[in-house]
Amino acid sequence: MSTAQLRAATSNAQLSYVNAGPGSGKTFLASEAFGYLRFVRHRHAAAGVVGVTFARSARRELENRIRVRWGARSVGWPNSVCTFDEMHRRLLRYLISQGLIVWPGGALLDRPLDSWALHPGATSKPGKKRKCFLTLDEEGLVSIGWTTSKLLAPNPAFTDRNDFLSALTDGHCTHNEIRNVLAAAMDGSLHPRFADAIRECLAGSVCHLVVDEAFDMNLLDTAVVQAAIDANVPVTVVGDPWQSLYEFRGSSPSAVQKLLVENRFLRIDMPGSHRYSTCEMLKLASALFRGEPFQVLEPADGEEFDVVLAHDWSALWAEDRISVLPAGVPSKLDRGRTTSAFVLLLGEVVQAQFGIESSGLVAATRVLEPSDLASQLEEPLALLRDSAATEDDIWSSLKGAFGLPCNVKKHEPKKLAKRCLRRLMDVVRHTDHPALGLTVHQAKGLEWERVLFLDGALSVSPRFANVLDVNEGSHRSVYVALTRARSSVRVLKVVSDPYGAQPSQIHHVAV
């Protein structure tokens, strides 16, 4: 453990912020800090040390590391590692148990649904109809309101009040309903007694709160952390503002920065150095972490890479200068049954080649509900590898595998799906070892020896250096992409604009 890591893991500050750069070992640090807090600083506390992260995969990773390092009892009650969604559920259940909030049916489901996708009565295409969502009145009664907001009621959603009420009283709900009601309850100006009860719950159950990847917090998450601070609960947050990528899902790095400044967190800088094995990457990572100008290189002829990263899946499917197998499909691809069959076919190829699960498999499986996926895809996979088989042969085989009628217009693949299949045929038939293709979002938290990044804004000229702005989301995406490599990263210019209609241009300075 480095001096910076030791200082961060054993800090006794009431409020501490570890500014952890890429390659600094954030998850390692969080597990070390958890053990120190559990067995040293708060060893006699009746309440528990609680580690909070975002994705369930990240929660499992952190909990497993803590168990291996500190033993299974380290995360036994009242100590725990959970997601923010789980913490939201716990707080809302507390309000219900205290009789402050009346929930339809009287209680919350122990394991809320991720969405209403498979629930009868919910629709993914509400059209112009108003959608149902939950509201909270001053007396604590949860009732059904109407909205057209995708944030308050993301699709699939209910458009019939009775169907929605029936699902709720049966004990079903999604994380979105929990967030909506808890956010209302935490508004101290409208519901002061609910906010007081939440602080009481946190003070009685948490002796120290550890937040991993803090800059992915949304407004509700920061409100929960603020409530813990107001309840005099010590808080440690670990994160890097440059690696906040989820504003499209509601994350608010500006709100996190405000939380840190207004509460005067002790800042501990921990620049990354453990990931990088070459002077080239150490120099680049240091410049990026400090916000200094940096230069990048184009790939040399014949240079090989372990992974190809891009801002979106479309750039990976369009790239034909290198052999890359994308582990996901473009967001503009339709989600019909025939396209879902293609997604499952791609998933089998990616699993066989790289041993990982490709993006979009869950949704495609829900659409088609395959009975025996391996046997259903046996013929389409054989045709995909057979150089004599045509594109139409493969589409016909996919339709037959999942019982889709041929010569029916709605089951005919669209132009984009056809282009993707042709690209997949080319990669499978002509390359034994293609590079893995991922979006920057998919690559966050991962690392490889050699990385190629597809980008249209970075300068690769030896006469210019690039300067990024942490307040620009597209610049943070560039930062994450450039810091995934242990040995080398190269940038291949793409013509298409990866940032949409109003790109955030990267500033170039002469060197």
UniProtKB/TrEMBL annotation:
Alphabetic keyword roster: ATP-binding, Helicase, Hydrolase, Isomerase, Nucleotide-binding
Enzyme class: isomerase
The keyword Cell membrane is assigned to this record: no
Binding, ATP: 20-27
UniProt key word ATP-binding: yes
Record-annotated UvrD-like helicase ATP-binding domain positions: 1-277
Protein name: DNA 3'-5' helicase
